Amino acid sequence: MAAALLRRLGQTLFVLFGISVLVFLVFFATPGADPTARIAGKNASPETMAKVRHEYGFDRPLPVQYATMMKKLFITRDLASYVDRGELVVPEIIEAAPVTLSLATGGAVIWVLASVTMGTLAAAFRGTWIDRGLMIAGLIGISIPVFWLGQVANLITQARYHDSWLFSWVPGLGYVPFTESPVGWFKVLIIPWIVLAVLFIGIYGRVLRADLVAVSGEDFMRTARAKGLSPARVLLRHGLRTSMITFVSLFGLDFAQLIGGGALLTEVVFGLQGVGRLTYQALSNLDLPLIMASVMYSAVFVVLANAVVDVIYVFLDPRVRDGR
Amino acid sequence: MDAEAPILEVRDLSVSFRSQGRDVPIVEKVSFAVGAREILGIVGESGSGKSVTAMTIMGLIDAPGVRVTGSALFRGQELIGMPQKALRRLRGREIAMIFQDPMTAFTPVYTIGWQIDEQIRAHEKLGKAEARSRTVRLLGDMGVPDPERTANRYPHQLSGGLRQRAMIAMALSCNPALLIADEPTTALDVTVQAQILDLIRTLRADYGSSVLLITHDMGVVAKTCDRVMVLYSGRIAERGPCDAIFAHPGHPYTAALLDSIPPLTGPRPERLPSIAGAPPPPLERPAGCAFAPRCHFTHDTCQALPPLLRYGQQDIACVLPKEGRPMPPRVTEYAQ
Fold first, then answer.
1. Contact B72/B38 with Cβ under 8 angstroms?
2. Does the pLDDT value for residue B74 go beyond 50?
3. Chain B hits for A230, Cβ within 8 Å
4. Of A229, A317, A322, the CB nearest to B109
5. How far apart are the C-alpha atoms of A153 and A100, rounded to whole Å?
6. d(CA A270, CA A16)
7. A225 contact B CB<8A
């Protein structure tokens, strides 16, 4: 166990190092990204340029600059933005992370519950209008762009029907920390959660149905039926349980990506100051410290989520347990 | 044995699948009976309809477009057309089934013991502990070493032979009157095969079960069965007591099958005889004798479908005995 943890830690460090070097090099290879010109401002005199360059250490060799940045990011944690001067990057990430975490986790709960129900129902009623209806609904869910759906949801709940009994409880856009008011947190996030989940419900529902249908042809499903079990038990205890293995690996990838800032569009539409939005700002300003910090943050979560998926895997599949 | 009513009596069972707008007959008018404590072997090549026959009896065929006609009486109850709910009560409890590949027949994510407990508890009101103790006893009876520990192991952790023993333990867990074994030894290596066959043979004494043994291996039949039915291309070729058929095969197909078993004694043959050609696919099945295109004895009268006729102790779907030219008795002896 300890060895496995250490190995995972080593992998994480290696991944972080690789990604950070890549981000660093790509940044300096990008034309027009020269931070000196941006910091010094437009039409700056050559002397100012030289001063800024020296002050920020841009005249030093790249490896030294890289090391300095890493030290400021991870050890002294006083890495400052190039764009908003003096704005520290690490607190910004720490402030944005709970927003994204709340959004992605709540959305994930909804999409897992809904897609498992949907996929199982569709597989149980394979070939009937229930199956067809659910699969078409899933396809519609996949095809709706999330920003459009978010805007429509806002239009309905914030403007058009906000004064009706149905949506008068919906608070204004923005984020309420859980620690401040759990109810407020829930109210403000429930609609973003649903909007974020719609796409995934469609994908996961369809994938699960296909998987269940494939599994239903397996020998062990025939054995289960030959044992005289009820169709529901055969489908749930034998079929669904086995299909969960594929489901979880897919889930790990998507969830990590969302935690790492992949829910950008949802965050923007609902005015949530999350990591996705922060990354977007950093990229549009070509603000290397912020890019670096948010990329490191996502990488940590992707690796972490993968580790969690591996653990769940071990619980779900005894064959994996013996394989290690 | 004859005095007792048969456990299973199948009459004129036909199964056809609908494919591209046509009914494809898979099994045609198959009739047989399994007496109490009897082991009946159903022999045939792949595609001869032997597995489909078994699955139909279990009510496990529910693909769209399947048509089943005829009758299958299990202790006087009609199985064909029985509602799924009633069938479910029989399945696993009165009629149990063992499958060909023990590697894939267990759900990979549960322990062997859990899966046997599940079957027991699906049919009987037993607590977890009681079910488990019966599971462990059954596994022990099946010759599984250290049954308590084995019950807590996952299918992939066991060898093929152990898994098949566990499968048989599961099938026997509710004391079924009839056990259908669909090629139970095909996926196992030869020494394990012999052990499993021995086990199946002892079942009737220890558990009083009748067995329907499906196989493509005449050697397995010789070792295990009381009576045998040879299927060819979905139709009965020959049916009768094992000894009689092995001594005087009445159908040229049976004779050819027997010739293809390597003899245990005497000089070693250069090359085993084989049957030239392949069985016809269901849609191209000839109107007359289905074996005629591959038969050495084909003549004009084979153009009509030969009826199943009694000849000695056997029922033979061939015109030869009636025409006074029965197949010669066999010389090779089989070690039983």
1. no
2. yes
3. 88
4. A317
5. 19
6. 31
7. yes
Task: With beta carbons under 8 A apart, name residues in chain B contacting A219.
Answer: 99, 101, 104-105
**Contact check, Cβ <8 Å, A227/B92:** yes
Phi, psi of A211 (to 5 degrees): -65, -45
**Helix and strand element counts for chain A (H, E):** 15, 0
B/e letters for B298-320, b = 16+ CB within 10 Å, e = fewer, are eeeebeeebebeebeebbbbbbb
Domain interval for residue A61: 2-90
Structural domains of chain B, ranges and CATH numbers in brackets: 1-37+44-83+217-336 (3.40.50.300)
Count CB pairs under 8 A between chains A and B: 76
Q: Residue B232: CB partners within 8 Å, gap ≥ 6? A: B44, B45, B48, B253, B279, B290, B291
B162 in helix, strand or coil? helix
Question: CA angle B251-B276-B333, nearest 5°?
Answer: 50
Interatomic CA distance for residues A183 and A195, integer angstroms = 19
Point out the residue among A220, A245, A322 whose CB comes nearest to the CB of B105: A220
Residue ranges of chain A with per-residue pLDDT less than 70: 1, 323-324
Single-letter code of the amino acid located at B280: P
Q: Which residues of A touch B157 (CB under 8 A)?
A: 318, 322
Residue A217, chain B, CB below 8 Å: the answer is no
Does one domain contain both A125 and A257?
Answer: yes
The average pLDDT across B62-78 equals: 87
Q: Does B29 touch chain A (CB under 8 A)?
A: no
| Average pLDDT of the segment spanning B250-254 | 87
A190 touches chain B (CB under 8 A): no
Judgement on whether residues A31 and A106 belong to the same structural domain of the protein: no
CB-based contact (8 Å) between A285 and chain B? Answer: no
Q: What is the ipTM of this complex?
A: 0.84
- Using CB atoms within 10 A of its CB, is residue B248 exposed (0-12), middle (13-18) or buried (19+)? buried
Strand pairing partners for B11?
B71
